[in-house]
Write a structure and sequence with these properties.
By secondary structure, this protein is α/β, with parallel strands linked by helices. It folds into 2 domains: 121 residues, Response regulator (Rossmann fold, 3-Layer(aba) Sandwich); 90 residues, Arc Repressor Mutant, subunit A. The protein is 38% helix and 25% strand. The protein contains 8 helices and 14 strands. The strands form 4 sheets. It has a 5-stranded parallel β-sheet, with helices on both faces. Strands 8-9-10-11 form a 4-stranded antiparallel β-sheet, with helices on both faces. A 3-stranded antiparallel β-sheet has the order 12-14-13. Helix 2 runs parallel beside helix 3, helix 6 packs across helix 7 and helix 6 packs across helix 8. The longest helix is centred in the last third of the chain and has 14 residues. The N and C termini lie far apart (48 Å).
């Protein structure tokens, strides 16, 4: 597998290149956006590791450049810009993943291998509500950049609530999402799931809560 590493810090680039080559990758390097653009036009890569803060601009613009030149590419962003807005921007623009610096090289290799499983022209769907981010394809949830572990039933409910972006979701819809359309559901089952979900959210953030609409359903709300 051939990778393009776009990184202007020479020490970081040299160390990372050596590590990746020991893992069996072929690594080309570019220090600037201009060099990276030339590399994409002249070569075929399996994935681009892309720093954001480059001498001649924001590395994320390389994603748009590749699209404009009809050179579809897998991008994995590596950046010290670790805020939720930075991550969402990168993912929404087409990056497959976003790893905040500093990072563990073994984790980077694992994420590279996951990204390589996708078709090179695949588009990820990302949902966001307040500090919560949902990668629809992988099913993963993140709160303020930190992964949030949920049981399957809680994840299905949260995904359904986030899909409606704060609108009320009827309890019947949530029950069918968890149990299927043709199953008898005990009246307290959904309430138990909602209770566990609320506790899970409370351990990560106080900015988003699950609100009950009596006799109707539930919705996500942002706290003042």
């Amino acid at each position: 597998m051939r990778l393009l590493l776009v990184e202007d810090d020479g020490d970081v680039a040299e160390t990372l290149t050596a590590y990746l080559e020991r893992q069996g990758f072929v690594v080309d390097r570019a220090d600037t956006l201009a060099m990276a653009q030339d590399a994409l036009l002249d070569n075929a890569f399996d994935l681009v590791l892309l720093d954001r803060m480059l001498p001649d601009g924001d590395g994320v613009s390389l994603i748009g450049f590749a699209e404009a030149q009809r050179r579809p590419q897998r991008f994995l962003l590596l950046s010290a810009l670790a805020g939720i807005d930075d991550k969402v921007t990168g993912l929404e623009l087409g990056a497959r993943d976003y790893i905040a610096k500093p990072f563990e090289p073994r984790e980077l290799v694992a994420r590279i291998r996951v990204a390589l499983r996708d078709r090179i022209d695949a588009v990820r769907e990302i949902k966001r509500f307040g500090p919560i981010l949902h990668d629809v394809e992988s099913g993963g949830f993140f709160v303020n950049d930190a992964p949030m572990s949920l049981r399957r039933s809680e994840a299905l409910v949260l995904a359904a609530l986030m899909a409606r972006e704060g609108a009320i979701v009827r309890r019947e819809t949530l029950e069918s999402r968890v149990y299927g359309y043709d199953k008898f559901v005990n009246g307290n089952s959904l309430e138990s799931i909602i209770s566990r979900l609320r506790k899970a959210l409370a351990t990560k953030t106080d900015a988003v809560k699950v609100s009950s609409i009596r006799g109707v359903g539930y919705q996500l709300v942002q706290s003042d």
